[in-house]
Design a protein that fits this description.
Strand content: 15-25%
Shape: globular
Structural class: alpha/beta
Largest sheet: 8 strands, mixed
Strand order of the largest sheet: 3-2-1-4-5-6-10-8
Order of helices and strands: EHEEHEHEHHEEEEHE
Distance between the termini: 29 Å
Helix content: 25-40%
Radius of gyration: 16 Å
Number of domains: 1
Number of helices: 6
């Protein structure tokens, strides 16, 4: 699959790029600063994710787009503005498949968190969660074939291979922390799953 990863130079995005390249996907990594550690064969495009014209260079010809962009100091709605640009670029390029990393606690997914952790998140992460909520609202209204993933606390530990991906209504118990490697693997599994279109999935481990 031809895959564009927006924010692929670090964190979960870098793990998506690494795993996708290892699996034989044709990967383009878009970021502002670039990366010196890209796998062989990965195409790099540097630019401003707030500029749809610059994003379009990375998205043109892609079959799917993954967005893992994080927050930005001094810009409380950075994720929201990035996804606004991504959606515009995808619509211009005629690309429909979109997977966006959000966060557990966004939307109705706080119900999947232990009570104390949910209250702590509301108290300490109100601004980031507001950004995630606004980001998700744009995705939901985009008309694209979207999936939102909402991982819990991210770690750099090895993948467990025991991921629970669920809509909030399912309510299965899961651990609140999850390795980025597990999140990346789940994203790649979901890419070709039409049953995940239009779903927001909380991610944790068993």
């Amino acid at each position: 699959m031809k895959l564009a990863v927006i924010g692929g130079n670090s964190g979960t995005g870098a793990e998506v790029v690494r795993q996708a390249a290892a699996d034989g996907h044709e990967v383009t990594c878009f970021s502002r600063s670039g990366s010196e550690a890209l796998p062989d064969g990965v195409r790099e495009v540097r630019g401003d994710a707030l500029d749809p014209a610059q994003l379009k260079e990375a998205i043109d010809g892609a079959e799917a787009v993954v967005v893992t962009a994080g927050g930005s100091k001094g810009s409380p709605r950075h994720r929201t503005e990035v996804i606004r640009s991504v959606i515009s670029a995808m619509q211009q390029a005629g690309v429909r498949r979109l997977i966006v990393q959000s966060s557990l606690g966004a939307g109705d997914s706080g119900a999947l968190m232990p009570t104390l952790l949910r209250l702590l998140a509301k108290a300490t992460l109100a601004k980031p969660l507001a950004d995630h909520n606004d980001q998700e609202a744009l995705v939901f209204a985009s008309g694209l074939d979207w999936t939102v993933v909402r991982p819990g606390g991210l770690t750099d530990k090895p993948a467990t291979g025991h991921v629970i991906a669920q809509e909030t209504k399912e309510g299965r118990a899961m651990k609140g922390m999850i390795p980025r490697a597990d999140v990346a693997a789940t994203i790649l599994e979901l890419l070709g799953d039409p049953g995940s279109h239009g779903k927001a999935l909380g991610l944790g481990t068993s």
